[in-house]
Design brief:
Elements (H helix, E strand, L loop, with lengths): L1 H52 L5 H9 L5 H26 L7 H4 L16 H22 L9 H20 L5 H11 L1 H5 L1 H20 L8
Length: about 230
């Protein structure tokens, strides 16, 4: 139960502060600031709850761990339920806060939801969005598995993983708003609805695909340290 509480709280924090940076402070801090908000929220949670649950706070990461042989599927399923619940709660709290501004409109201001195509940020295509989410999640999972594996300086893992998320956001915000995390995508989409909900499938399928492939690469020993 402690692990599930930790995963709920960690995903709640990531969505509240990461998406919150975009919704509340976006014009002031820009894409660099939003990228740092997501990455630093992850760094904080990595050291705050990492010892409890491993700080996956991402269904794709949990499934990647299963593929790598570091976690059982039943335990991952429990993690995923907690992560999605935390993301929805985080988006809900963000909506309450954002609604406190007189000129805020959910339809116009959104909740930092992911997307692609006409009218969404850089207006990238579905193919570009899918490739970015899959490849970025694959590389993100490589950092996670490598920095937490045997022989790695694990005390620095949280910082390495958080900085990787910063870089991913710096590159990808204009493409998809950056998910690489199905829970992070689900939370805002549930409240925003419409296009955000109809496009949600991509932000579940592509990150899971990328993370599982990375897990299989590690499971096969293709990135094992040289002996």
């Amino acid at each position: 139960m402690n692990k599930l509480v930790a995963e709920f709280l960690g995903t709640f924090t990531l969505v509240l502060f990461g998406c919150g940076a975009a919704v509340i402070a976006g014009p002031e801090i820009g894409m660099t600031g939003i990228s740092l908000a997501f990455g630093l929220a992850l760094v904080g949670m990595a050291y705050g709850i990492g010892a409890v649950s491993g700080c996956h706070i991402n269904p794709a990461v949990s499934l990647g761990m299963v593929a790598a042989g570091r976690m059982s599927l039943p335990e991952a399923a429990k993690y995923i339920v907690a992560q999605v619940a935390g993301a929805i709660a985080g988006a809900g709290v963000l909506l309450v806060i954002a609604s406190g501004k007189a000129d805020y409109s959910l339809a116009e201001g959104g909740l930092g939801q992911n997307g692609w195509g006409t009218g969404y940020l850089g207006e990238y295509s579905l193919t570009a969005a899918f490739v970015f989410e899959a490849v970025a999640t694959f590389l993100f999972m490589v950092v996670i598995l490598g920095s937490t594996g045997a022989g790695a300086p694990t005390a620095m893992a949280g910082l390495a993983i958080g900085l990787a998320l910063v870089v991913i956001h710096l590159v990808g915000i204009n493409v998809t708003g950056v998910s690489v995390n199905p829970a992070r995508a689900i939370g805002p989409a549930i409240f925003v609805g419409g296009t955000a909900l109809s496009q949600l499938w991509l932000f579940i399928v592509a990150p899971v695909l990328g993370a599982v492939v990375a897990g299989l690469v590690f499971s096969a020993g293709l990135l094992a340290p040289s002996k």
